[in-house]
Amino acid sequence: MRRMLYLLGVMLVLASGVMPVAAEDEVMTAKDQFASMAWLEGHWRGEDIEAYYTSPAGWLILSVSKHYAEDGNSVFGEFEQFAIRGGIVTLTPFPGGKQSEHSFPLVSCDPDRNRVEFENLEHDWPTHFLYESPDNDTLHIVVSGPDEMGEESSLAFTLKRVVELPLLGRSE
Q1: How many CB atoms lie within 10 A of CB 61?
Q2: Region 13-28: what's the mean pLDDT?
Q3: Which spans in 46-161 are helix H?
Q4: How far is Cα 103 from Cα 1, in angstroms, rounded to an integer?
Q5: How far is residue 72's CA from residue 164's CA, in Å, rounded to a whole number?
Q6: Which residues pair with 23 in a beta bridge?
Q7: Which class in CATH covers the domain with range 2-171?
Q8: Considering the entire predicted model, what is its pTM?
Q9: In this predicted model, which residue has the larger pLDDT, 25 or 98?
Q10: Where are the domains of the chain?
Q11: What H or E segment, with its residue span, contains residue 5?
Q12: Which backbone phi and psi does 26 adopt, to 5 degrees?
């Protein structure tokens, strides 16, 4: 039943070409939603993760991230592609550099809170990606979904914007 309701919702969104946002009577086009994600752009670093996001110019945001073990060695790398496909903003992950079979359509966009959510219930794990920037210098990323036992599980990351020193080629 949950899957049927999800598919019905996706079909309605695809048919309308627009997606509701914070207020029920407001709608944004996919291009408006995409442009509102400009806050993602930049270099971000957390305790065990580092990520770069390009600008939304050309209706494409690319990201690259790497995850670190406690000893400082990188243990995992991933690419992400945010694009407009069929009138819908989508996230396509490339875990370990390989394109996922599943893309994740945007299901929620709140430009006032710098918050976007992507979901695909057909994917095993994760089924949900949340990106939020409560201020210009903090990025929260939460990936979640049911685990192999059907229990909800999540990974949460908090990253800070890295200030680049352009003339020196280093960051602080």
Answers
A1: 21
A2: 49
A3: none
A4: 21
A5: 21
A6: none
A7: mainly beta
A8: 0.81
A9: 98
A10: 2-171
A11: helix 2-16
A12: -100, 145
